[in-house]
Design brief:
The protein is built from 16 helices and 2 strands. The protein has helices spanning 2-31, 36-47, 53-64, 75-96, 107-115, 118-144, 150-172, 178-201, 206-233, 236-239, 245-249, 254-262, 265-272, 282-294, 297-315, 323-338, and strands at residues 100-101, 104-105. Strand 1 and strand 2 form a beta hairpin. It starts with a helix and ends with a helix.
Length: 341
């Protein structure tokens, strides 16, 4: 089943996005011949190897809630979520000073190099992200009108956006409640939001929405835990990011949270000397990753990920959802927690 339905959704969404960008390029160029630069920057990132997991989750939520096997109905809403992600990724990369994304330059880095001006490149990147956000809301409105639950879909999308902003603030401030930060920053627009929007498009019952929330909440956090593991232990050739990326950037990941609790003062100080050190060498990063493993931090994160995955799986047992949709959700559960990029 995976090759047929997931491949079909990804291909359909990619083609829809290509058409959308072609149309928008003509529109913005008519407004200003210079605006094509912003459009092209947003389009290039959007089309550069995105997994479209959120679109797959939206469709699975739609089918599990009784929606017919009609991929055309979910294309505009899928585009809205992908464009929202583009907007968020551009700004997140700028805030984190990340030079790479999806195996290529981040938008602010590419524009800074093009213009030979870091500040101008960052400013143009923010404008490109704003353009993507505007396109997202246009697509959202077009997709929402196909449902009996238009106002609820619009409200859920706005809530999802707000949750991501709140989670991003927690991340920037290195808040100690890392799991809540993960749920807001990542789980909201990666799993919970798309599930609920797909279900609302299918006119889901309150019981179905509740069941999907019980499934989506632990899965969203598990998705981020896998991201944290990949950020330190992932293969750069697969993840599209340099080895030890999260360590060099000093990110407050679940691995670091566990290490703080497990390491004594001297061992923690040694690890902390690498965190956020842009000049950390490959051997230093490798040693820091080894410390995270030998301290038990990695094992704790992996164990918690497994617990969350089991919780999500249990939520599907006897849930008032369609059998085919449940099979899709189970497939996506495995895809999200076992992925290598």
């Amino acid at each position: 089943m995976s090759q047929s339905w997931t491949g079909q959704i990804v291909a359909s969404v990619n083609e829809h996005l290509r058409t959308l960008f072609e149309t928008k390029r003509a529109q913005v160029t008519e407004m200003s011949p210079y605006a094509a630069e912003l459009l092209d920057a947003a389009a290039e990132l959007t089309m550069r190897g995105g997994k479209r997991l959120r679109c797959l989750i939206l469709y699975a939520g739609y089918r599990a809630s009784g929606g017919p096997a009609d991929t055309a109905r979910i294309l505009e809403l899928s585009a809205a979520i992908e464009l929202l992600q583009t907007y968020l990724l551009i700004q997140d990369d700028w805030m984190d000073d990340d030079a790479e994304r999806r195996g290529g330059p981040s938008v602010h880095a590419a524009l800074a190099q093009k213009r030979n001006d870091a500040k101008l490149g960052a400013s143009l990147a923010i404008l490109a992200s704003d353009l993507a956000a505007g396109f997202a809301h246009e697509a959202l409105q077009r997709g929402a009108v196909a449902s009996k639950r238009t106002s609820e879909i619009l409200a859920r999308f706005s809530q999802m956006h707000t949750e991501v902003v709140c989670g991003q603030q927690m991340d920037l401030l290195e808040h100690t409640d890392v799991e809540r930060m993960h749920d807001l920053k990542t789980g909201s627009y990666t799993v919970r939001g798309p599930l609920q929007i797909g279900a609302l498009l299918a006119d889901a019952t309150p019981e179905q929405l509740a069941a999907l929330d019980r499934f989506g909440r632990p899965l969203g956090i598990a998705f981020q835990l896998r991201d944290d593991l990949l950020g330190t232990y992932g293969d750069p050739a697969v993840t599209g990011k340099p080895a030890g990326h999260d360590l060099r950037e000093g990110k407050n990941t679940s691995l670091i949270r566990e290490a703080r609790a497990l390491l004594d003062g001297q061992a923690w100080s040694q690890l902390a000397s690498v965190l956020g050190n842009a000049n950390a060498t490959a051997p230093q990063l490798s040693e820091a990753a080894r410390v995270l493993e030998t301290s038990g931090a990695r094992a704790r994160v992996e164990a918690h990920l497994a617990t969350l995955a089991n919780e999500a799986e249990s939520a599907l047992v006897a849930a008032p959802l369609g059998a085919e949709g449940v099979a899709m959700l189970r497939e996506l559960l495995n895809k999200l927690v076992l992925r290598d990029r």
